Fold these 3 entries.
Entry 1:
Amino acid sequence: MFKKILIANRGEIACRVAATCARLGIKTVAVYSDADAHAKHVASCDEAVYIGASSPKESYLRWEKIIETALATGAQAIHPGYGFLSENDAFATACQAAGLVFIGPPASAIQAMGLKAESKQLMEKAGVPLVPGYHGANQEPAFLQGQADSMGYPVLIKASAGGGGKGMRIVDKSEDFAAALVSCKREAINSFGDDAVLIEKYVQRPRHIEIQVFGDTQGNYVYLFERDCSVQRRHQKVLEEAPAPGLSEAMRQQMGATAVAAARAVDYVGAGTVEFIVEQQPNGDMNFFFMEMNTRLQVEHPVTEAITGLDLVEWQLLVASGEPLPLKQEQLCITGHAIEARICAENPDNQFLPATGQLKVYGLPEHVTFERTAGGSTAVNVRIDSGVREGDTISPYYDSMIAKLIVHGATREQALARMDEALSKTHIVGLNTNVQFLRYVVRSDSFAQANLDTGLIPREEAALFDQEPVGAAWAVAAAVVHTLHAERAQADSNQSVWTDPWAKRDGWQSHGIRARVFEFEFHGEKVAAQLRYLHDGALQLSVDDTSGALSYSYGDAGLDISFAQHRIIAKTYKNSDVVSIFTAKGAAQIIAIDLLEHARETHEEGGRLTAPMPGKVVSFSVKAGDKVVKGQALAVMDAMKMEHTIASPTDGVVQEVLYQPGDQVVEGAELLKLGVAV
Ligand code: ADP
Ligand code: ADP
Ligand code: MG
């Protein structure tokens, strides 16, 4: 076994790999960029070496520098994690040439599976079922259109070099094909430097079911069962689970054997995932087709660890150091059910726009970080693999996934309940995340009933987006109680400045009854509240047309609030003037308006269109002089590995376009000037 390895990655996966190494007594070397100088993964390793500027090209993708660092620090092997260099066959070759072990498959296997089109040709020969489609070399638009027309719509255009859900376009009818091809090729060349595409029949009610495989250098192979990753947005996984609900034992074995055949066809070694698209027929029959093989550790590998009780990183290390696979197929079994949720810094209510900023509060449920659960023991119910800590800043340079929450239960129902509970105790303040959205997905009828396919999120749309689980009256009550509690805590901690609440500047007194007024903004609407201090010391709160007695106590679970004969337990946090409220039902945010502050400057964006995040301008769909309407797409930006359409905030006329496609812009940069339409 290795004595020291370098981890050529960042974020949660670098921390995850470091945890297994620490358990096995293997020393670790972290590498980091400017943006990551104080990142968690740096602290998780035994030593750390700076490798360059924040942009991945200047640091995590600089493989000469990484190899040089491994040699200089005496590391024997490099673990690439996922993303970055993990599927780069030239890097694997260069490691070998430098006398370092690349912890992954041989370069030849990476290359064989690297391009979707070529890998399909190989798989066809190995007898692996493929989705009907064209994956040849001819890239003539007219020829591809002809292929799509004869296949029948809908079809999917896919970048052969694509990954991470990028470079894909669904086309519903022949007339739309040409435009979709152009846009797909543009995204492919920008993201992958290769604009070759393939065309596939778009499978109906598709489920994404993938098989974890493992091979060793002695030619042994096993499959570690399946993961269902059907819950997706923009072709990216949101929730993953194992085993796949409703998959028969016969089909599990058939898919497992097919995945092993695919791995064997490329002399695969190490951890790999064979992804299948599964067609569900009205009579319940399921057909599976090969989509691609990911020649690395997968983001969602923890659900496999939870149901098998194995440490896949340990297996990777064993295999890479020449050991045989620790177990044979017949020694492997599934225990219970596991679900993973990807926690991302993004705003689901605004097209999942990635968010950057500081994690002011990062409150997590009780969990383990990573622990080997021998024999699939259910001792570990909640696991969190996190790449961040409270106080860390999410930069715009890397992808938006900050942590993974993995739950295990004896049954799917139990795992589901644990997931909801754990998400309800995940309190992140300071930037937008998808935590509440994940709760809605987990609680949706489709997910609860395991009615899974990749259309789940759009189908359940009404229950997933723009939800308001707390309500204005309760949000106000919680914010008022938060204020009272904070004032009390402050007074207790500093007796000398104790001022009684009646003396607050926003208080007033009339007929012996003292009162305070509060003003809030909730979902863009002003809400006023009046708090009265009655003679007996009781509190009376009025919000809109709800009025009633208010009382509270404070304990470990947060504030226990009674208002107008109802009771909730809420955790509240204040970050400048925003109060975040977390309850069992869900979370809310409310802005406390300081009545004594001068009229606040309003951020009227009227005639400006600004970049919602730092990134690169891909294109403008308008030019100076064009009339536009509110909501019309004006520009496309590329940020955090995704393309985002920027819509017009208002009706108007474009006066000036201020950037060129390809320009890098900072958050808030004015992209174009809009004038009033005449
Ligand atoms: P999974 O491991 O479940 O397949 P993804 O497909 O989302 O997960 O990809 C895993 C990670 O690798 C993500 O960070 C994703 O952004 C990144 N990634 C995948 N393919 C590429 C690629 N071709 N180029 C850059 N990043 C990629
Ligand atoms: P990536 O490399 O980006 O992961 P994949 O080929 O694995 O690309 O496809 C990503 C997702 O797109 C799948 O998980 C599935 O949801 C959807 N998808 C891919 N191919 C098809 C298809 N032929 N029919 C329907 N959906 C598909
Ligand atoms: Mg995929």
Entry 2:
Amino acid sequence: MNEQGLSEKEIFSFLENAKSEDTDYYRVLSSMCTHPHKIAVEAHRLFIEANLGDLGLFAGACRLEQEVVRMLGELLHAPSIVVPSGGSCESSVCGYLTTGGTESNIQAVRGMKNLVTAGKKGFKGVPNIVIPESAHFSFDKVADMMGIEVRRASLDSEFRVDLSSVESLIDINTMGLVGIAGNTEFGQIDPIDKLSEIALENELFLHIDAAFGGFVIPFLEKPQPFDFKVPGVSSIAIDPHKMGLSTIPSGALLFRSPSFLDSLKVNTPYLTTKAQFTLTGTRSGASAAATCAVMKYLGNEGYRKNVHYCMQLTEKLVTEARKIGFEPLLEPVMNVVALKVPNPDLVREQLLERFGWNVSITRIPRALRLVLMPHNTLEDIELFVQDLKKVTAEI
Ligand code: PLP
């Protein structure tokens, strides 16, 4: 660090210089995040100092977090419960705001493990979970840190998890299953209703990673079942900082039953609250405010328009790509396209070097992976396909 402080002018010129190296999402077709909505940015600023790690000091921010959990519970069809006093509770959903899909996935599996080791099931040996091969790499972190075995089920020809493969991997030490509602590479949705049947038959937890799809699927014309309406679903990860248009970091983890959340509790002796069930200690109240504000501002109608726009971009991309002879690996389910092109790694490199397009590649099979987000335009798509044509013609 410098001995004496710099002037404001010097600092901001330094920052602007760094900022000029960012893409600002220009020609970005590889990201599942986007510009946060301006309402979210304003709300974020307003609560910039709020720490949800010490709830007693920030009762207002805490209330906003609860309101987000309530709204997300409603969006994801959390069931109602009747409380013993005879009063009826609007929703039994419980959960909290995380830093994103990674934390939500880690905590969901930690909850399974805690409930299992608390004696709810008789296990012999190392506990395991069964996830689809298409699962996000956050599950590699789960495998690394949780002392459990992560078993990967193969995919069917449509890049959904293969149910017979899932069944073949379940044994006495299996704690739970994971289904993906909007997988990272293909935007595909696993057969959650069938996974639910398997989970219920085998008395297993079922966690749904809807980090990306959670703010997409409910707003599609024909939504597939993926949320708490499906009886075996025990927890859901959904990220407001992706298609929810909130600020980073905004993730959320919801549980069907409060016992799940309870299993994550640790005592916090010197804070204003007695216990914490989150992974991180200090947490951003600004994210809670941002998410609350943007959800209330847009409402279902606003998110429906957002998804409709991204699906229009998706259709445009597929139509234009077909005109130059390239087919998608699967008909897009949501705003993610995996495009079959010759030599995708070289195409990706050339698109970036020559035209500044940021695209990514699926693992198996290798294809161009394109995510159509609110920061993209129909003109972008036309230009992109023209550039793709030039690049592939010369390879
Ligand atoms: N799950 C899915 C399906 C994702 O697509 C992603 C990120 O793209 C994650 C989890 C991880 O989310 P984050 O990067 O916010 O931790």
Entry 3:
Amino acid sequence: MIQPAVELRGLRKSYGATEAVCGIDLRVERGEVFALLGPNGAGKTTTVEILEGHRSRSAGEVSVLGHDPGRNERAMKQRLGIVLQQTGVDEYLTVREVVQMVAGYYPRPRDVDEVLGLTGLGDQADRRVKKLSGGQKRRVDLAVALAGDPELLFLDEPTTGFDPSARRQAWETIRGLAALGKTVFLTTHFMDEAQALADRLAIIADGTIVATGSADELIGAGSTSTRIRFRLPETAELPDTFAARRDISVWEIETDEPTHALHELTEWALGAETELLDLEVTRRSLEDVYLQLTAEGGEQ
Ligand code: ATP
């Protein structure tokens, strides 16, 4: 059997009386892009830093590329690339110098120009890091993580603070890494990011995994899959039989049978000679699932 890239069993971490991670199990296969999602304080950074070997654990079994990160082995670190939320590269060096320097620490680094190309930094290669924009600096962090040609990359909130186009570029870079066969473990607050990138994801709330699977599996896991939203002219009143919710002027119907529900609704509207204003039919999104699961976690 092929060994997974990451395997956690019963991982626990307490900071004094605070139990930040309460016995989680996770498995990430090689070549997968895996996203860990969760609200502030859920335990994402704690989990990732334990995997990286930057924090100790209170209990549980952890395997990263077959190594126990608690042992702080150089052989493991040489196979990892890490992008932290904040990093400190020497800002007086040029982009190329930074990547070259980091590449020098590894036995089999990736070609520096290739790393600069992959991270979209080709045009900035000879500029000092100090002169770059926030988003460009973040790309330097990614280039640093790639310099050693790692098998497994940890990206902690890789696009926080990016403008929309920089985010899309970062997504392309991450997809490029997946195409090279790298395993990517990322944390994010952005549902669209997880949906766009991750083969599988896990949602963590209060130190507990509340769901795992592909985005499609998680979205399909609920009982109601489609949402119909509309407004009505002030004179119209929707009959109670529709079991619709009303939020100020917007009506909302959740249904597993959208064709049937739409038929009934439009039939009623035609009969009542009223218009369904701003009519919208949307699938339940990952964000809906996330909000539901993390809210339930918070109430426990
Ligand atoms: P965010 O999205 O805000 O980065 P997170 O999911 O990464 O949050 P963690 O940073 O892992 O969450 O924190 C989980 C819990 O552990 C929080 O309650 C936090 O206050 C606590 N915690 C984290 N680091 C420490 C520490 N060094 N000492 C004490 N408590 C800590």
